[in-house]
What we know:
Layout: H1 4-17, H2 22-26, H3 32-39, H4 47-57, H5 61-66, H6 70-89, H7 92-109, H8 112-128, H9 132-145, H10 151-167, H11 171-187, H12 193-209, H13 213-226, H14 233-249, H15 253-270, H16 273-289, H17 293-309, H18 313-329, H19 333-341, H20 352-368, H21 372-389, H22 392-408, H23 412-424
Helix pairs in contact: 6-7, 6-8, 7-8, 8-9, 8-10, 9-10, 10-11, 10-12, 11-12, 12-13, 12-14, 13-14, 14-15, 14-16, 15-16, 16-17, 16-18, 17-18, 18-19, 18-20, 19-20, 20-21, 21-22, 22-23
Amino acid sequence: MDEPAEIGRRVQRLRNQRGLTQRQLAEPSYTPAYVSTLESGKVRPSETALRFLAGRLGTTYEELATGRPAHVATELRLALTDAQQHLATGAADEAAVLYRRLLTDAEHLDLAPEQAEALLGLGECALETGELANAGRHFEAAERLLAGEPLPRRARAIRGRAVAHLLAGELRYACYLLESTIDELGTSGLADPEALVLLYAAVIGPYIDMGAHARAAHAAELALALAPQVSDPALVAGMHRQVARTFLAEGRTADADASLAKAQTIYRQLRLRTDLAHCHWMRGYVQAQNGELALAEKELRRARDMLTAKRAVLYTAQVEVELADVLRRLGRHDEAAGLLSALLELGDRHGAVHAGGAHRLLGLIAEERGETEAAEEHYVVALAMLERSGASGDLADLCRLLGDLLRRAGRTEAALDAYRTGLGHRAAPGTTTLGPAPAAPSF
Length: 443
């Protein structure tokens, strides 16, 4: 809203153009004296008063409060939905071009909510293309613009920042951002269901990667309980996709597959191709766990093709690690090693978790080929990468692999050191070193 003096001049100009007296404009809800005081800029009108006056003057509240024709903001919001559709069904690069143009327009018109929406869109585009630093900057800028808004309105920006840290391998900080926001929503009395489902679904992944399966299961239960209150189908589908991860961790593959089937149905209806690709990826993972390797390869290749077409670099890398493991288990070592070698450079930039997973699989392949020294080298590099990212669940398993390799080579003391390191990373079931879990919201 503009300053009172500017609004007053605008009301006076429009009143004169329409040939109305102050009394005619004011009645029946206000007095001529109030209109006179408003036109002189001595009072800041309420939204209710401006909406009444706008109706009497044949204009809109927005135009009276800001001087902008209402259709300008409406057209900008419509264009933002077009950009969102591009992001859902086309390439992230194309959506980013639209969002950048709309951000410039929103800045020129001084429309803060639309600026925030454009920045959130740019952040999502950057996440898909693996530009994590840019993603973080966009989400932070959106959060600054929304600083005066209630916390549920800022949840998307906070969740975006957390996902950027998660994809960069900073699991603990991602958990901190999500957990502290969940706690704040609860203590502030703003336990908005959509915001909570968004945050609980996002925190499941880092919990599982850190070996905190009990926390992941609790987050999944809460998300499922809140889901009936959520009206956004894409948000519900994303929740089902993440909840499936907890079912997998608990060995409930049938439940996991059922959740993924629900998510896939929604994503097909909404044509959200990246999210649909994630479902193919997770179904492939479920099938691999069940030993259905041929089916798993088919699902993972489909997910990989969909993500590659969208230039979703880091998500593609995650799928390629899973696909390489399936190929290794099928005995196609050269094919698997070729996929994994291309992922090793990710460790130099931001995909330490994925590069660590690639080194672990290359170690297994080397070990199966009888190349003991190469296997040890890969395991040690993977260990360093996963320690840096805080992926405790994977670390314990990796230390076991390294320990077994050293023990078979007769290096008993070195093997014991590896086993002790693994035990050190094996926290009590369902915990992390982050402190108390967030309090459950009151329903």
